[in-house]
Amino acid sequence: MTSIFYSGLSKDFSLLLNNADDFNVIIQVGEVNNTKEFRAHSVILRARSPYFKSALSNEWITKRNDMIVFNKPNITPLIFDMVLKYIYTGELNLKKYSGENILELLIASDELILEELFEHIQDYLINNQTSWIQENFVLVLHTVFKLVSCKKLQDYCLESICTDPRPFITSKNFPSLDKDILYGLLKRDDMQIDEVSVWDSLIKWGIEQTPGLGNKNNDRTKWNNINYEALKKTLNQFIPHIRFVEISPSEYFDKVRPYKAIIPNHIYEEIEEFYFKGTLPKTFTLSPRVGKIRIESDIIKPILIPTIINWINKREAKSFLNKNDSSYKFNLIYRGSIDGIDSNLFRNRCKSQEPILILVKCQNLKKIFGGYTPVGFYRYLSNSWNNNYYIYSTDSFIFSFEDNDDNQNMKISRVTSHNYAIYNNYYDGYGFSFGSGDLYMEEESLCVDNSGGYYEHNLNSYGTYTIEEIEAFRVVKQ
């Protein structure tokens, strides 16, 4: 058995750093009035950092009196002291430093290719500096999006903002946000905020970013055509990512229409037609933002949730969601990969007589199938000799998506024979059955016919497929 003595090793290397009598490198860091010289050993620097292994090679070094002299003006003495402590001892107590210092250390560790330290700093900021990050989102975003390897912290920041965007987009620093970061946020479907608030914030950002406007000229009543054209140019790439159909008619009249001069003509015409005639836009068909509506599905992505909710409410698939729709909850009650893919197991989990949504992914098939029943699947009548019969429903439907996030090519078939909406196959070995074989589960297979005559003949899919994954959700409207 190998004995390990890391603590003693770390202590000895710490002494070597603090009393570097045989050093051979002088590193000059900082600039102007904040500079300092550090003494170090090239063999240790090369061993611990790929950056120094390259930078201290014979081709790049400068020597003075047989001493390697190296300049790092872009790293402050405080940060470089932290770097050397990590390099020599493998120890670093980040609790002693401010959020700004830790962010500077993140930049330095990326440049010096200290991968272990770089990953640790990201984890530390996420787990221990959440309040500071939220208070300084713009600073953090501008920093981490310059670092290609900083994906973990980038994702954390964006997801945190989308969970509660209002404090961020109404902050005093929001108008200084980098345009590429703003563009990425506007494209997201999971921002939990009213679209009119997104519009208001975009206008404020655009005014601040447009030459000739800003604090000196933010009174729209005093603008001329040149000012409007300048703002239009600033916001040109962002306007197509506003979900105008989610803005109420009164909010549109008060907050959007005054800025019609900055909206491209083809978009504005379709918006007007939507508000006056109810005609959905044709050239920009962005789905509503998912907001607070959640579904923990391994089969579909959140972008498809608004379509399903619209179908449940008997609306067109691409209609905009209203505020009441955010109260829908999809509670998982059965998942094949956890509970087992089997008709009997499905029935045991889905005996509820409440609304249920089914999602099915089949092997070697991108297409997603599903169905919705507002009355559940099963009724057991203790005084009946036959528990295999049909259940009445006016609002059941079956559907398909081309893949897990395609909301452009979906198909829906609504029940036409209400008396035969759901087959109450309590004993027959089926997991579920919509109509007379229109869409049903038998053992480990999904059978798609959609020609039984009890549902609209719209899916245009026929066959028996092996189920790869299946999910059932209890649908709750609070």
From TrEMBL:
Return the protein name.
Serine-enriched protein
Name all TLDc domain ranges: 307-476
Q: Which domain of life is it from?
A: Eukaryota
The residues covered by the BTB domain are 23-96
Q: Which one Pfam family would you cite for this protein? A: TLD
Q: Which InterPro entries match?
A: BACK, BTB-POZ/Galectin-3-binding, BTB/POZ_dom, SKP1/BTB/POZ_sf, TLDc_dom
